[in-house]
Amino acid sequence: MKNTFTWAACAAAIALASCGAPAETNSETAPAKQEAKTAEAASFIGGTYTIDPAASTVNWKGTKITTDSHVGTINVHKGTIDVLDNAVAKAFVAIDMNSMVCTDEGMDDDTKANLIGHLSSDDFFGVQQFPYSRLDIEGIKVKEGEALAYGQIVIREIAQPINFPVTISEEDGNIVVDASVTFDRSKHDVKFRSGAFPDLFPDLGDKLINDDIELDVHIVATL
C-alpha cells in the first residue's frame, strides 16, 4: 500500500504531536476516512536511508531563447536520507556527471553524442575535472501551504543556495521523494552562450542559451 503526503501535511501532523502510526480502521466501511487518516498520520522509522541509484531517476531539460530545447537523463551516483523524529532531518544526492544522455526525439545518435560531448566539456560542466554534482538538503520549510526543500546545489564545486517544491511518500517501508528543481547554470561558472556574461558573448541574439536548467528528480531510499 502506498501512502502519499506533502511535507506540509507532515509538518502539521508533527505540530499536533500526532505523526505516529494510524489507528486501525475498517477500510471496507470507511475507506475515505482511512485514506485521510493515513495521509495525516504517516511516519517513517528513524535512521539513515540509503538511496537506491537503480530505482532513482533524474531527467534534465535545457532551453534556448528560441524555445528550442534539449532533454535527457543523468544517473544518481549515491546518497542518503536521515530521518529523525518521524521527519527528514537532512539528505544528500550525488549525481554522476559522466552519465549524461540526450533523449531528444528525431536526433540521430552522432548528433546526440556531439551534444553530450559539448555539455561534458569545459564550455559547460567540465566533467573530467568535476565528475560529480550534488544536492545537500538541510531541511524543509512550508510557505503558503507549499513544502519547500532548502539547502545547497553544488556544481563544478561551486555551492549555491537552492529551494524547490518536494513531496514524499512511503512504499513498502521505502522513502520515495519527487521534486522539480531549477538551477541557474551561470552561478556555477557555466558560461557558454549565457546572457550573464555579455563581455564573453556579446550580441548573442537567437543563439542565447537560457541559464535555467530544469531537473525532474525521483528518489527511492531504503533503510
Can you give keywords for this protein?
223 residues, Lipocalin, ten-stranded antiparallel β-sheet, 50% strand, globular
Descriptive report:
The protein has a single domain, classed as Lipid/polyisoprenoid-binding, YceI-like (Lipocalin), CATH 2.40.128. 14% of the residues lie in helices and 50% in strands. The protein is built from three helices and ten strands. It has helices spanning 7-15, 31-41, 109-120, and strands at 2-6, 47-51, 57-64, 69-84, 87-102, 132-143, 146-155, 158-171, 174-184, 209-222. It is globular.
What share of residues is helical? 10-25%
Percentage beta strand: over 45%
State the separation between the terminal residues, measured CA to CA.
17 Å
> How many distinct beta strands?
10
Q: What is the CATH level 1 assignment?
A: Mainly Beta
| Rg over C-alpha atoms, rounded to the nearest angstrom | 20 Å
Q: Any idea what the CATH architecture is?
A: Beta Barrel
Task: Tell me the overall shape.
Answer: globular
Task: Provide the residue-averaged pLDDT.
Answer: 82
- Report the uncertain regions: 1-42
CATH topology: Lipocalin
Coarse structural class: mainly beta
Largest sheet: 10 strands, antiparallel
Total of domains: 1
Element order, helices and strands? EHHEEEEHEEEEE
CATH superfamily: Lipid/polyisoprenoid-binding, YceI-like
Helical segment count: 3
